[in-house]
Amino acid sequence: MLSDIELLTERYPDIPIEAIVKEDLLRSGMAWAPNALEVAAGFKVKAYFICSFDMISIDQMGQEEHLKAPEEIRLRGGPFNFHPVIVSVRLNPASPYRVESDGAALVLKLNSQTIAEIELQKSPEYYQRTLASGKPVQDIAP
C-alpha cells in the first residue's frame, strides 16, 4: 500500500516532492504538537503585524500558537531525502500535516508518517531590543 506522499508523487511524477509538499502545506496548513511548539518558541516566532494566513483566529489557538510558532520552517532530509525548501507556517490544528518533536529534532509528519526534518531560524539579537517608545523591535521589523 502506498503512503499519502507516494500517492502524490505518483500522481505528479514530473514535479519535485518538495514543490508538491510545499503547495499542499500552504493550502492545508499544519498542526503543531505541544512539545514542538515549546522547541519553536526558542526561535524566531511568527509576526502578526500586518495579516495572517493562519486557518484559525488567534482566539481559537488553545496552545498559544501565535506566541510560539515560527514564521517559516525549512524542510530537508527525512525518508524522502528532501532538498532544502522554506515554507511559510499556516496554522491549522485540523491539518493532516503535523510538526512533532522526537526529543532531538523537529519533524514534519503527514498522517503520522515522517516525511522531512525541520530546521528553524534563530531569532536575531536585535529582536530583544526595544525602541525608545517601549515597543519591541520584533513588532516593527520582522
Number of helices: 5
The helix/strand class is alpha+beta
Secondary structure: helix percent: 10-25%
Name the strands of the widest sheet in spatial order.
Answer: 1-4-5-6-2-3
Q: What does the largest sheet look like?
A: 6 strands, mixed
Number of E-state strands: 6
Radius of gyration: 16 Å
Mean pLDDT: 88
Could you name the ranges where pLDDT drops below 50 across 5 or more consecutive residues?
A: none
| SS strand fraction | 15-25%
Question: What's the shape?
Answer: elongated
Instruction: Please give the oligomerization state of what you see.
Output: single chain
Succession of helices and strands: HHEHHEEEEEH
Head-to-tail CA distance between termini: 44 Å
3D structure, described in words:
There is one protein chain. Helices cover 25% and strands 23% of the residues. A hairpin with a 4-residue loop joins β4 (97-101) and β5. It is α+β, with helices and mostly antiparallel strands and 142 residues long. It has helices at 4-11, 17-28, 34-40, 65-68, 137-140, and strands at 31-32, 72-77, 82-88, 97-101, 106-110, 113-119. The relative contact order is 0.21. It is built from 5 helices and 6 strands; from the N terminus they run ααβααβββββα. The model has no long low-confidence stretch (mean pLDDT 88). The protein has a 6-stranded mixed sheet.
